[in-house]
From TrEMBL:
This is Response regulator transcription factor. Residues 4-120 form the Response regulatory domain. Keywords: DNA-binding, Phosphoprotein. InterPro entries: CheY-like_superfamily, NreC/VraR/RcsB-like_REC, Sig_transdc_resp-reg_C-effctor, Sig_transdc_resp-reg_receiver, Tscrpt_reg_LuxR_C, WalR-like. SUPFAM superfamilies: C-terminal effector domain of the bipartite response regulators, CheY-like. The keyword Phosphoprotein applies. Residues 143-208 form the HTH luxR-type domain. GO terms for molecular function: DNA binding. PROSITE patterns: HTH_LUXR_2, RESPONSE_REGULATORY. One of its GO terms (biological process) is phosphorelay signal transduction system. The modification 4-aspartylphosphate is found at residue 55. It comes from Ramlibacter monticola.
Length: 215
């Protein structure tokens, strides 16, 4: 049997696509699937996996907090983030949180297999875009941009707000109360010294942090 892969993604079509891709190989095998953060954590605890393909945007416990929790409980588990989120949004934080690679859903099948094998083998996989981000990110050169001051939870809420999600949507997705999300929003505005949501969106556009910004 090949390397046992746990695929954590809420979309059936993505999980099915990965199953089909891996089925054509001799060294990789999808051994389990999960559609939300809670199920992913439960499955990670149940057995030793050869590789975790992790999406950062799932219902329930998700995102960078889930990544950090898994890394704390299973420090040797190879984790490859496989997400629709643009590299500018989450790649740096994901790698700093313990991921060994970051792969976009836009990647072709050959690149996916290379990334999976590389990470499962204990090596990092970085696309040219992520490598450039790591080399040029302001934090590395001593500067800190306003959005770098946010905690991982705040950054997740910030990215959802500027992408058009309502506070109710965010509360439902992250299993939080609307009051808690509203409090986080206030802290985000304070830390980034912004006056309101319009300025948040303008900031995201200027710094290319929006999913809808064209390449």
């Amino acid at each position: 049997m090949g390397i046992s892969v746990l695929v954590a993604n809420e979309y059936p079509v993505v999980r099915s696509g990965l199953r089909t891709l891996v089925a054509a190989t001799e060294d990789l095998a999808v051994g389990g699937e999960s559609a939300d953060g809670h199920a992913t954590l439960d499955m990670v605890r149940q057995r030793d996996w050869g590789l975790l393909m992790l999406d950062l945007c799932m219902r329930g416990r998700s995102g960078l907090e889930l990544l950090k929790l898994i890394r704390a409980e299973r420090p040797r588990l190879p984790i490859l983030v496989f997400s629709a989120q643009r590299e500018e949004l989450y790649a740096l934080r994901a790698i700093r949180a313990g991921a060994m690679g970051y792969l976009s859903l836009r990647s072709d099948g050959e690149t996916m297999l290379v990334a999976m094998r590389r990470v499962a083998g204990g090596r990092m996989f970085l696309s040219p875009e992520v490598t450039e981000l790591l080399a040029s990110h302001p934090v590395e050169s001593g500067g800190v941009l306003p959005h770098d001051r946010l905690t991982d939870r705040e950054y997740g809420i910030f990215s959802r707000i500027v992408s058009g999600a309502t506070l109710t949507d965010i509360a439902d997705e992250l299993s939080l109360s609307i009051k808690t999300v509203s409090t986080h929003k206030s802290h985000i505005l304070d830390k980034m010294t912004l006056a309101g949501q319009v300025e948040m969106v303008r900031y995201a556009i200027e710094h290319r942090l929006l999913e809808t910004v064209s390449e």
